[in-house]
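Field reference: sequence -> structure
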Amino acid sequence: MIYQSPPIGSLIFSFMYGINKELIKNNTKLEEMLYSALKEDNFKILEKSKVEFEPYGLTLVTILAESHAIIHTYPEYESLTFDLYSCRGPNDGRKTYNYFEERVNPLHAFLNIAEVPVDPNYIVNGNTLNKTRKANIINFFPQ
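Structure field:
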């Protein structure tokens, strides 16, 4: 049987501030934390790619059978970004995020979760979808 993903994917994006000064510089530990979080949530890791910056910093891209997970650190600001997209359906990936965030233990975390319709028929209930462009600007800072 051929796998068909649900018509809705899940996008989780977070910016974490106030991360322990030693942890944010420990690329190996952060990498282990992300992979453990993904495995805990039964994601299948297909490929791993990373870039380590001098004197500190990390961009880690993980290709999953179910899509991708990315972290990028800013050690000079004791912060990082977390990005996870899953095509396993709405609300997916929260277990991964929670597991990772609990271990990173930031002072502040700004979390955005979007349910992403990937099937145009789902968006327009079977009507023809005309070419559309829409942008939502997310302001992380309260007004």
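Note: The CA atoms of residues 74 and 142 lie 22 Å apart.
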